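Why Glyoxalase/bleomycin resistance protein/dioxygenase? Reviewers of the renewal asked for a concrete example.
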Amino acid sequence: MENVCGINHVTLSVKDLERSVAFYSDLLGFEVWMRKGHSAYLEAGTFWLALVVDENVRSGPLPEYTHLALSVSKDGLPVLKEKLLRAGVAEWQESERAGSFYFLDPDGHKLELHSGTLAERLTMRER
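Here is what the prediction returned.
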């Protein structure tokens, strides 16, 4: 029997492709591999992100907790958090832990910078 072995890629609908490519590449450090027509492919580490222009994209964050967590080193988290705050990025939730920062992309997708591992999270939940 075959099982899923990971996430292949995530596709986000965006209103303005150039604005979103700049956000993910300039602020978060994604590498832009392709930008053509109404889509772009970016990569951070082994994470592949597709951005696609969609006239039905949200106009703000959804009320639910669903979000995408992006890995960052423990040392890099405060630096990247400060960079995002200086750029005027909105927080959607204050973090109870030092290893997370919750923020919105230009289309209101909920994102998190996270510096922890699954093992660390499980240990914390056992306490």
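The radius of gyration is 15 Å. This is the kind of structural detail the renewal will allow us to pursue systematically.
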